[in-house]
């Protein structure tokens, strides 16, 4: 039976028919052949068979034969600026990788950051991402309006966006990893973060831009920055994000410096709660998972990056069983050079099956799709408006072409999407506005981005070498 809302005859409508649909709603409702009606920026109707007859003001009809329609993918962890430092330090663990790359990252400026954001956003949008986020925490002195440049790139691309305004105040001289010239003061970081929230954060239902408070990690920020950052976020009513429990070395660092593991340390600084999500959470014991479940702290699972840096296998099946909100993340493209989220569906499923506890029952195709859609919306605090195809939610959806030889012999479309090769995106809509058509971006010049990102990567390399 179709679900539909009361019709407004004045609004423009887009009708998609003859497609398989995976709604990823609470019941995992699916239709072998169904329809979606988009009215303005909302989903008005969804169900089996043809769309309702006599719809008014239909401006476009799409024949979805051979396609699967899903919610748009939601990316929950990224570092856009790293697009211009891909392919470096390819055989390093996390700490050595950071030591190798921080001196280069400390030279970025506004033009580099904007161009790198274009590259990162383009890769994700072409791969079905409709909601992106960027954890940006490197703010060299005199580098310009980095936050504004990132938000501008997302707005131009047409992608729904969360900026996690990061910060670092623990440099090498304080026992941290970043170079001294790459960090902010405690007061400066807090003041600029607050200004960014007040200038850019939109809390409305269909908001295209939101801001979170996001000190970088336990080994690059002071305890006071974590504590005051949490107080700031809750005073402003925004979410909180940081890296946590990514590597064995981080756990050792926390125990040596703070006398406790990462989860206990985060709880002591106010960094567990339903308004918090952590990146990675690889090295979590039963007590840690229970604390996340009790507090509804979310996790951004980044399987490809975790593998690239040999960080380990996160206990995602155990987190889900305990009730921890879990989404997927690309992570920065200096540790996941592909830079897109669709492969994370497949890698999350495959890598978690390598865990010797759960093996082939660790995750299935529909659980992986849920991680990349509704799970991500939960983690970003937006599950009431995105992440599933339901009447009244924002019209963020993707038509995946499963009719090519790469997928056509796989009977189940969700299995084809998750287990198969990266499926072409015939159309992607954000807030009812199409941003991808036939695997090409509609609001960005991909060839120009290829040129500009290469030039900025070369400029950054020259500046770093001279320094």
UniProtKB/TrEMBL annotation:
Ranges of residues in domain Amidohydrolase-related: 68-434
SUPFAM superfamilies attached to this UniProt entry: Composite domain of metallo-dependent hydrolases, Metallo-dependent hydrolases
Hydrolase listed as a keyword: yes
InterPro entries in UniProt: Amidohydro-rel (IPR006680), Metal-dep_hydrolase_composite (IPR011059), Metal_Hydrolase (IPR032466), MTA/SAH_deaminase (IPR050287)
Keywords: Hydrolase
EC number(s) stated in the UniProt entry for this protein: 3.5.4.32
Keyword Hydrolase tagged: yes
Molecular function GO labels: 8-oxoguanine deaminase activity
Family annotation (Gene3D superfamilies): Metal-dependent hydrolases, Urease, subunit C, domain 1
Enzyme class name: hydrolase
Protein name, per record: 8-oxoguanine deaminase
Organism field: Streptomyces caledonius
